[in-house]
Amino acid sequence: MRALPIRYVEPVYRPPSEAWSLIFQVTLGCSHLKTRRDPSSPTGYRVQSGCAFCVAYQTKPFRARPEAEVLAEIDAAAAALGGRVERVFLADGDALVLSTNRLLRILERLCARFPRLQRVTCYASPQNLLGKTVDELRRLREAGLTMIYVGIESGDDEVLRRIDKGATAAQMIEACGRAKAAGLAQSLTVILGLAGPDPERSRRHAEATGRVLDAIAPEYAAALTLMLEERVPSFAEQAGDPAWRELTPVEALREIHWLLSVIRADGIEFRSNHASNWLALKGRLQGDRERLLRQIDAALRDPRLLRPEFLRAL
Ligand code: SF4
Prior knowledge:
Elements: E1 22-25, E2 27-28, E3 34-37, E4 45-49, E5 63-64, H1 67-81, E6 87-91, H2 100-113, E7 119-123, H3 126-130, H4 134-142, E8 145-153, H5 157-162, H6 169-181, E9 185-192, H7 199-216, E10 220-225, H8 232-238, H9 249-262, E11 269-271, E12 282-284, H10 289-301
Parallel strand pairs: 1-6, 6-7, 7-8, 8-9, 9-10, 10-11
Antiparallel strand pairs: 2-5, 3-4, 11-12
This protein binds iron/sulfur cluster (SF4).
Iron/sulfur cluster (SF4) binds at residues 30, 32-33, 50-51, 54, 56-57, 93-94, 125, 151.
């Protein structure tokens, strides 16, 4: 069997739904994350700025890969895989940070080399989207970009500031509104537990997050539960909240109940089947909303319905 002619710079991350996609790294790392070496940190690096919960690219400083190198890799992969490729994911953490013209050239090459290509997706940050006009995003859509994955994390401005997300709730809505106007499908991720266990803050985070999802009304929305383990102290320090801790299952279920309760938009495919969650929910809003809420209530009454702790993972 011939080796794939793509040299990946590890670690490589992709959304679970891109498991069957061919991945091209057009950037390395994430443009929002700044780190420095720190031997006292478990990873050997410490976040200087960037999302406080994120370790994804701590050991890989951000850079755009040379365009010629990416295009040559596409050519080589096409020669090796012929017409078999139907899905492509552009990595790393926020490929949409590249200029529109460079992305257009990459999309053009992908379409030319992979005649059966049906979808091209990538991660995008709110900042990436706000750096582009609707017209630019529309041109990317017309050139073959079909869907973007955006980490919303929270709709609560205080939480967003504490985790250094780099965007407010209003900016998230504006950014994703541009993508929607351009015809790009969107898969959004939110994180339970970011506000910690304080009931008032937890509820504010959950409801504000639900309101942002409601305003954006994406095609897909998924909830993860924050799992930091040994990084709890450094997260609490960066978030400026010494009392911060991870949620218990009951606290996480309450958050997801609050979040779902405020969403009124129709047509969102909602999931909490990520391995970090204690309860796997799957349904289409609004039709399945009452069933999802009943599932949460049942799990609150009967902990045997929860995923065992040893099966939870990031
Ligand atoms: S934008 Fe995404 S990859 Fe970048 S620091 Fe935040 S969570 Fe991590």
